[in-house]
Amino acid sequence: MNGKPVIGITMGDPAGCGPEITVKALHNPEVYEACNPVVVGDAKVLRDSVRILEEVGYLKKNELEIHQISDVKDAKYQYGVIDVFHLELVDMEQFEYGKLSGMCGEAAFQCVVKVIELAMKDEVDATVTNALNKEAINMAGHHYAGHTEIYAKYTGTKNYAMMLAHEDLRVVHVSTHVSLKEACERVKKERVLDTIRLANEACRDLGIEKPKIAVAGLNPHAGEDGMFGREEIDEIIPAIEAAKAEGICVEGPIPPDTVFSKARGGWYDIVVVMYHDQGHIPLKVVGFVYHKEEKKWGAVAGVNITLGLPIIRVSVDHGTAFGHAGQGVQNELSLQNSLDDAIRMAKSRIRKKQERSGR
């Protein structure tokens, strides 16, 4: 082949923005200069996205071709041609943009399962996922909280974590999709230490040779020496000391109301956060930009990376945008960011694999 990493991209929920932003992202010739992209989805849906983008004037007539394949080896990897690993998933007579349905939930789920399978077989070097709808996949009978849990199940991974990134601001979570009460109960030394290790390895995969890691406190003022809770003293500090003993460059616990400003200022490469919203809020404040005068979203940027997996998984950091699906107006920036990080991580893993094999 041409030496570029193969990136498998799921179309996401077909009734959402995933197919449209996939076509928009693959309209950029720079993507093909950096990687070999292949979309896992229903070719009929992707062709319909091309039609919509032609109608709104984003694409010229016949500017892009959908190339339907059933084997990655048949992909062309040629700009102007979007290779789609076709799964017969969507009945277009029943299909409707912006509509929650079990059919679309099943389609989104099967795309994820297939791209995981391709990655586990080394047929793709990294995976990038578009948004799915959790309610839709549950309607289809698949009871998962989201992509992260699906990947963990189908790769047999027990120790994993979610990392969000926007430009140089990165966070990795000790816990994610659980209640706040349970999240506090999950702040234990071993889990915090595992998350610090995952954060360190993720930064190295992204090309940061000696990552500087901050660990956020759980409580206000990081507990204020036990005045506002003992989790920092009993669990977080012992984890930090153990990580330091392993040679990891880590500091904390740092009060969560200041740690993100410090990270944005270059003090740290990544922040270990204790629960879902502690990490999601700062990332989305800087990555999601709403223009109040125009009453519309501008940038919707940032990526979601699952750490600890045997394969690479990077995702857009937004939802399905059902309210605007099928209109040709969706912003593809988060998907572009996801492709960039997936390519970097894939190249890093390929290089490490070659070094281990002595080539």
Please state the oligomeric state of the protein chains shown.
Answer: single chain
Structural class by secondary-structure content: alpha/beta
**Helical amount:** 25-40%
Contiguous helical run count:
12
| Rg (CA only) | 21 Å
> What distance lies between the first and last C-alpha atoms, to the nearest angstrom?
18 Å
CATH class of the largest domain: Alpha Beta
Which sequence of strands runs across the widest sheet? 3-4-2-1-5-14-13-6-7-10-8-9
Annotation, overall tally of beta strands: 14
Write up what this structure looks like:
A hairpin with a 4-residue loop joins strand 11 and strand 12 (296-300). The model has no long low-confidence stretch (mean pLDDT 92). With 359 residues, this protein is α/β, with parallel strands linked by helices. It contains twelve helices and 14 strands. The strands form two sheets. The protein has a twelve-stranded mixed sheet with strand order 3-4-2-1-5-14-13-6-7-10-8-9, with helices on both faces. The protein has a two-stranded antiparallel sheet with strand order 11-12.
